[in-house]
């Protein structure tokens, strides 16, 4: 579930609510000032997904969805953010940014040997202070700042070379990609585009792959980039964030023309996580690049966590361009595919740890217990390996159960769309969806609208501004007000709270 603003929980004292609302208003002012200082594009690229989670004991906690954004904001914009906090919220003595969810741990068995087995899903957080004199040095924070400085340095070293693409992982290739019913179409299409020679007609352009987390999109994209490079085609693999950063940096350095030329001179452009593309002129540039490459018969391969039509933050033209080639969904991994992935990971681990033995019964148990995604299977093998090396004993079922218990979830949560919430709530309250999106303020429309906003915040990962936009272009403070209002009413009114539970269940089925 997405984080709610601190103090906004059901039954939170009214004073806390008022304070939290005041903080959110100050945060809105900070954002407004940042937007006017930096311009719309830079703001929406780097700050569009930055949220204020809450303020407590003089510490403000902000959050972003990726590590990259976190370190980028910390390294480039702290000095802009601090003074704004000082003037809008003088009681804040420290600001920290955390990553809302973690992504992509390595499957290299040796990589986990040094890390704690429970590291998956950890929140990455680093603090920085608005004014160094105001805080007592905290050794943990100093340590993490050092780590951050080093990582920022590496980032800069790398960023200088961004047009050559994001780094490719040599382990993510076609031979390590295991094929099952759910991904065979995506795999076949990826192989086809990767192995095509320059004079062959392009059958699937763009090739658009989509799936929920950890189902192998990035793996396939890296495989395409490796294979296309091997047939001597010029390939660039970029995450959407690298693309944004590359474009914004090129604009600043007045090298935008070189940037565009470089991108348009390649044979295969591979872009990952396109759902993160933000900013009007960045999207325009992206659309121009797509058009120029497609017209010049160059291959484009894209991955995202949802189909093109659901990329709400993208311009309609970009969405339709993306949907104009072959669009393939990669489904969940079935049990036989999960077994194959586990066997391959265990075999890879055995190369470095020859005594690592996992009986077939344990593999079968892990494959049936972990149904979520490849990343969790990697995590399971890492945990088994850690237990085996710590105990020096072969892995039995009991040890396996203990080792992976934090990874065992029965179902991947269903992805719920705001549109579905609006439709269900409208029909439940006997109004139309158009009423919910309209400016009408009669009581029979206002309450369902607030309930739909509340459910959108609770059941989707959309931010308050995004929800506001999807409800007829309303401001995020209206959404926040609706969420609080419904929480307060539901605390006092048992039948409303039951009704909300019922709607949630219907949406999650
Ligand atoms: N079919 C597969 N064969 C081999 N490994 C797989 C397969 N599917 C997923 N994996 C492994 O699962 C892990 C997660 O996959 P990957 O990073 O490609 O997922 P993703 O779909 O890009 O996820 P996200 O949307 O979170 O970026 C990787 O280690 C990947 O190698």
Automatic annotation (TrEMBL):
Domain of life, per lineage: Bacteria
Keyword check for Nucleotide-binding: yes
GO MF assignments: ATP binding; DNA replication origin binding; lipid binding
Stretches that traverse the bilayer: none
A GO BP entry: regulation of DNA replication
The UniProt record lists the keyword Amino-acid biosynthesis: no
Protein task: Plays an essential role in the initiation and regulation of chromosomal replication. ATP-DnaA binds to the origin of replication (oriC) to initiate formation of the DNA replication initiation complex once per cell cycle. Binds the DnaA box (a 9 base pair repeat at the origin) and separates the double-stranded (ds)DNA. Forms a right-handed helical filament on oriC DNA; dsDNA binds to the exterior of the filament while single-stranded (ss)DNA is stabiized in the filament's interior.
Cross-referenced InterPro entries: AAA+_ATPase (IPR003593), Chromosome_initiator_DnaA (IPR001957), Chromosome_initiator_DnaA-like (IPR020591), Chromosome_initiator_DnaA_CS (IPR018312), DnaA_C (IPR013159), DnaA_dom (IPR013317), DnaA_N_dom (IPR024633), DnaA_N_sf (IPR038454)
Binding site for ATP: 214, 216-218
Chain positions covered by the region annotation Domain I, interacts with DnaA modulators: 1-126
GO cellular component: cytoplasm; plasma membrane
Residue ranges, annotated region (Domain IV, binds dsDNA): 389-509
Residues covered by the AAA+ ATPase domain: 203-328
Domain remarks in the Swiss-Prot or TrEMBL record: Domain I is involved in oligomerization and binding regulators, domain II is flexibile and of varying length in different bacteria, domain III forms the AAA+ region, while domain IV binds dsDNA.
SMART domains in the record: AAA (SM00382), Bac_DnaA_C (SM00760)
Protein name from the UniProt record: Chromosomal replication initiator protein DnaA
CDD domains: AAA (cd00009), Bac_DnaA_C (cd06571)
PANTHER family per record: CHROMOSOMAL REPLICATION INITIATOR PROTEIN DNAA
Subcellular location: Cytoplasm
Family: Belongs to the DnaA family.
